[in-house]
Every structure is written in structure tokens, then in C-alpha cells.
Amino acid sequence: MVITTVKSAYLKGVADGAPFILVIIPFASLFGLLATEAGLNVFESLAFSVVVIAGAAQFTALQLMQEEAPTLIVLISALAVNLRMAMYSASLTPYIGAAPLWQRALAAYLTVDQSYVVSIAQYERAPEMTVPQRMAYFFGTVTPIVPFWYLFTLIGAVLGAQVPESWALDFAIPITFLAMIAPMFRTLAHVVAAFVAVVVSLLVTQVPYSLGLIVAGLAGMMAGAQAELWLERKKGTAP
């Protein structure tokens, strides 16, 4: 689709964001179900998705809530997981930073992995797009995503409220994280980061309130960064 107007930009965004529905439906449903398993009621589960609207951070918070971690630890951990949004925002600023404040505020709320990935790719492919067209495209990408995230969180929560406690679905959270991160192992640096994080997390299992996970995450990031630097230096010295 050739973008010539704000409307065509919006419609292209909707088309590009639509395939993510196939991912949103199961993950939102699982979150709603696990939220009730963690002790939230249906309204609280839905409110969680509406307010936070960040899958990885929400699953992290649920895991810590099930471990009865203090509220402050839950908030800090969820924030740490979501720090990538700051990088997304910095990357989008050159393209949509001139938009009206209310549009930028709404875009900040709606910045998720999917909207960022497809939007930044489109902006780089079509640098001639105007700021209104870019904003329309961005809002188009989340049109098929966000409502389904809310709706299937609600459906999952309603279903989860009917699931007997004897089913013990706690195991689904770590499995969900494995499914989320496995496709991201694309380079040696990624593998190194994951390996170091796993080893360190096993060494700090006695740290209270799962704070060892944050320590392990920091260690993994530092190891991955060093591996990336080593690989870059090796490329620079290669004949």
C-alpha cells in the first residue's frame, strides 16, 4: 500500500499490526488466567493490563506476587524489565518528536514491542512520510493489538476464576518466559548473556524476594555487552 494520506498511513498500520493478533490472543488469555491464579480478581486482572500494558513486566510482577514479594520489589522488578521502552522512545523521537503533546503522550502509553518494531521499520523504509502520517501509522499498528490485549485478558481472567486451585498452573509463568525469549537468541552475545544470567541466578537463589534475578539479569547484560565488544574487536582485526 502506497502512503499518500494520513488515512492510508493509518490503514497500512492496521494491516501491518494485524498479524500480531495471533500472538496477543494466547498471551493475554494466559496472563488473565494466571493473574487470577496469583490472587487477583477479574477486575484487578483487567485493570493490570489496562494500566501497565506490557506483557513481560506483567508476567514478572505476577511471578513475584506469587512469591509474596513486597510491593516495592514487585514495582522495581517490573520497571527494570520495562526499561527497554526508554530506548524505544529515544529511537522514535527523531520521527515523531514534532507531533502534538497529546499524540506523543498517547504514543508513549501505546509503545509496545509490536508497535515499535513495525513503526520504526516503516519510518526507515519511507523517510518521506510526514509527521501526521507517521503518527497515524503508529496508531494504526496498535488498533488491532491493544483491544485484543484487554479483551483476552478479561476472558482469561473469567476462565481463570473458574479453574480449581488443585490444577496448580504456577508452572506456566516460567514456561511463558522461555517461549518469549527463545527466539531472541540470534547471536553469540545473546547466548553468553543468557548463560551467565542462568549461572548467576543459580548461585544467588538464597537472596530474598527473588532479588537474585535482578543481580543475574545485570550480570547477564554485562557479559553480553563484553561479548559484543569482543566480537566487534575480533572483526576489526580480522584480515
From TrEMBL:
Name of this chain's protein: Predicted branched-chain amino acid permease (Azaleucine resistance)
Pfam families: AzlC (PF03591)
Transmembrane regions: 20-40, 46-65, 72-96, 135-159, 171-204
Record InterPro entries: Brnchd-chn_aa_trnsp_permease (IPR011606)
Compartments in which it is found: Cell membrane
Membrane-topology descriptor: Multi-pass membrane protein
Principal subcellular localization: membrane
Superkingdom of origin: Bacteria
GO cellular component term of the entry, any: plasma membrane
Annotated GO biological process: L-valine transmembrane transport
Keyword presence, Metal-binding: no
Species of the source: Sulfitobacter brevis
Family per similarity comment: Belongs to the AzlC family.
